[in-house]
Amino acid sequence: MTVKLPIYLDYQSTTPIDPRVIDRIIDVMKNDYGNPHSRSHSYGWKAEELVEIARRQVAKLINADEKEIFFTSGATESNNLAIKGVAKFYETVNKKHIITLTTEHKCVINSCRDLEQEGFKITFLPVQKNGLVDLNVLENAITNETSLVSIMAVNNEIGVIQPLAEIGALCRKKGVFFHTDCAQAFGKIPLDVDKMNIDLMSISGHKIYGPKGIGALYIRRKPRVRIKSIFSGGGQERGIRSGTAPTQLIVGLGLASEIAFNEMEQDYLHIKKLSKKFYDAVTALTHVYLNGDLEQRYLGNLNFSFAGIEGESMIMAIKDLAVSSGSACTSASLEPSYVLHALGVDDELAHTSIRFGFGRFTTEEEIDYAITLITKKVEKLRAMSPLWDMMQEGIDIKSINWKTH
Amino acid sequence: MAYSKELLEHYENPKNVGAFDKNEKGIGTGLVGAPACGDVMKLQIKVSDDGIITDAKFKTFGCGSAIASSSLATEWIKGMEIDKAQKITNKEIAEELSLPPVKIHCSVLAEEAIKAAIEDYKKNKENNYSEDDSEDDSEGDSEDDSEDDKNEDKMAVKKHKKN
Description:
The complex is a heterodimer.
Chain A (H helix, E strand, L loop, with lengths): L6 E2 L10 H13 L10 H20 L7 E4 L2 H16 L6 E5 L4 H12 L3 E5 L9 H7 L4 E5 L13 H11 L2 E5 L18 E5 L10 E5 L27 H37 L4 E3 L10 E6 L4 H7 L3 E2 L1 E2 L12 H5 L4 H4 L2 E5 L6 H20 L2 H7 L13
Parallel strand pairs in A: 1-11, 3-4, 3-5, 5-6, 6-7
Antiparallel strand pairs in A: 2-8, 7-8, 9-10, 10-13, 12-13
Helix pairs in contact in A: 1-7, 2-7, 3-4, 7-11
Chain B lengths: L4 H8 L14 E8 L4 E9 L5 E9 L2 H14 L4 H4 L4 H8 L6 H26 L12 H21 L1
Antiparallel strand pairs in B: 1-2, 2-3
Helix pairs in contact in B: 1-2, 2-5, 4-5
């Protein structure tokens, strides 16, 4: 069987849309184009009904009530809404402190930074070497002024899963709200807002084989979490998020959620098999290090550092694979990844990191092709690497007095 | 990111990858950059008695532009007088490879590597004239480098066999 090149191994940035979802979306676009907020005719009623079905499908996947689901444009908006919304509502009762992690997604970090500019106190907690938060450190950071703890479920760069149930229990005990960015977790690992004491959850459509431009925010009703909305407008989504609900995208997210609910076990077993094969083959190349905890991890994300090989040259060498570099040479900035930095990964290793992402549509043939290609190119690039030579000779690269530029 | 044809050619088929024995006569070695910054370039020249660079080799840890810049640099300086090679600027390298602005530092590194190799060659030559006490002049990291070279020789041999 031949594989289609380049092979898509970047499932954390986005996923292909499930064909079942595409068909459904097209059908809605053709036939159910009414505005779900129109009250005066059947086009509106039908669209509204479709939106409410999708709301139930999303709620079911996290064991929430449908009234607790609010549609947004995606996880970035949901994170902004949750963090700024809670901060600004509870500011009035002297709760002006928010806790988050240094390894969060940029939209969480920058939402917090914006609040900091407005006078809020933000604590960016460090993580341990394995990428996980230390619960004692978290407990000690919570004060009487803390309104919200925002900690992601699955890290987008390195795939580690934070201990959500433990964090939730701690937050409940301390009387602070727990928000979790589940863009990379929703539909992939079991989530239960009650068992995990989650008060707010950000959800994305395009990470679970659904369309881009749609997401949701779960907001707990009992005990009630209040937020100040960001958008001014017609008061749709019960005043939480104004703007016409995009029926076809919502239906897409709903169906993608239902498929994920029904096929989570199957997806998991498929990804586990591919992930193990890939992990075993790549680590056999020696001096290849997995970033983040090996056990507490979503297996569809493997972020490796290839010692002696700069990340961007590796990406160029394996151009038959669509992957992403943790090392930021691919972006305008030349700084290595802040997430790896937070884990205490040395700069020289951070520059060598590459994220491989697998999913529902990745085949074993593709993984075999990837393994063969990576093995060949690692050998080639190491043969031209002065650092690799030094490492082979047992020279500690740190002992050399480099002139940093 | 769209790279030029010239850059891609030097990246895909880099010229002059390998190493010389650092202690051989007429060799100059330049090691520039830093692992923490994401690029390290090692460029070596072999110089004849009349000051002509007869051969050049490199090994680079770095992005595609860094590898291409070092490959191009070694190609250019082969057959050149050292005084002329000394005058190669990063601008010429960047232009030849059409480096994007964020990659200009790769060409700077290549220029520095040529200069460092020539400087090292000149230093070695002086040390040879000043008789046998030259070892006292060796720098702190020279031991590391010579170990390094033994290995590079192996790598170079391996490479030749493959070819």
